[in-house]
Write a structure and sequence with these properties.
By secondary structure, the chain is α/β, with parallel strands linked by helices. It contains 16 helices and 14 strands. The model has no long low-confidence stretch (mean pLDDT 93).
Amino acid sequence: MSQASHVILNLNPIPGGIYASGWRTGYRDPASFITVEHYVELAKIAERGHLDALFLADTASWSPVAGSRTFRPLDPTVSLPYIAAHTSHLGLIATVSTTYNTPYNLARRLLSLDHVSGGRAAWNVVVTAGDEQARNSSLPAAPPKQERYARAREFVEIVRQLWHSWEDGAIVADAESGVYIDATKVRPIHYQGDHFQVAGPLIVPPSPQHHPVIIQAGGSEGGTDLAGRYANAVYSTQPTQDGARAYREELRRRAAHHGRSPDTIKLLPGLVTIIGSTEEEAQRRARDLLERIPVSPGLARLSTFVELPPEVLATGLDEPLPWHQIPAEALNGVGHSATVLRTAKENHYTVRDILHEINSVREHATITGTPEQVADKIETWFRSGAVDGFNIMPAELPLGAEQFVDHVVPLLQQRGLFRTEYTTKTLRGHYGLSHHD
């Protein structure tokens, strides 16, 4: 199966770090992690390492859990133009929901970002689970998942058609003849669907990379189908190499089924990193970060898994769960929470042990060790065909990003796995895609 000539590396910066205690280490002013300057600093670090892109996840509604950790208050489509002005090559990935936006307006915003950045923009397509954002959008609850994905398919199709509503050569700009736009090369799309009716054409012409890269996040059946139809890259949770390889093969099969080249879709799972000069140092850092995470958010999350009140769980932190009170379906599922619970029961974990497991973000691939060990894992997964690259998710920021760029990237470069300088200026170029993909 074909791969790019180098491993694709995006920096996916959860504010302060993916560990909920990253903001409590004293490495930075905690208030700085929700500012745009935090992301500018991270973008500059990523670009110094010649990484492919900065990936901005987004949650557009408040959750009480956010009271114990940093969060993302700024709209990525507003933050990224500012970041673009402070960088020159780094790709810029904005997460925007298809459930709570409209296609024409979003197509314009994203293609405008692509122009502003010189062809470095991408759209991470999400359908947004949970009811909080629904209630902020005049809905009593989130639409059913099947409906959200049906809407998403129409949404992405419309955006793509709008981005292609201008032919090459439509901008004439001939002062002598007085013709600025060849109107015969700008066409309406006249889309009529179950969820949207959009006339078009888009007001924005093609960008230096023609149109933004499309990325999809989520591994459900609806998400996998959406990715196979449209995505150039997929961000997903893949904790094992074999699981990642199987999912990459499935994505490529889906792309071919929809008449696309399998090489136009890249699997880029998350990779959580904690780096030390020795493995012991990295493990100490991991323990310190875990011990700094407050108990209450983890109890609230565990409570939803096992259907027991947090206050009941809190009375037995150093005891096993009361397994006789936990519904069988909580253990028999296929998701991360069920896996954690089965492991806990088999190994006689205490509630505190389970909280550490939850807080360690093990739904993603993880590596706690030396730069060499991090590079080894990236190389093994990439060369085996399990992935096309990773979204790097340091446990704490900006320290983890600096360690990755300064100590892991040079090892990957020495092994011929990563670029030593940018050779293209667009994100499509970085990913090895053409403007037709």
